[in-house]
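Feature request, filed as a ticket because there's no other form

It would be nice if the structure record came with a short human-readable summary line next to the tokens. Right now we just get the raw output. Example of a typical job, pasted below so the devs can see what we mean:
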Amino acid sequence: MDGNALTAVGLLMVGVVCELGYGLTHLSSPWGWAYVLLAIVSMVAVHLVWRSREQSDHRQQR
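Raw output as currently delivered:
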């Protein structure tokens, strides 16, 4: 994976950590749960993008 992709994934993970931190400190309100769910969805999306990029990198190397 190239440097730009790693930077993008890193920035997304910083956003996920911020969403999760805010959500976990505000669990008494519905918005806290919304931020936790958003963080989970974001983590899944980052994982899927990362995996598809790795698969395409492996295909290009063959």
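Something like this underneath would help us a lot:
The CA atoms of residues 1 and 57 lie 7 Å apart.
Residues 19-57 form one domain.
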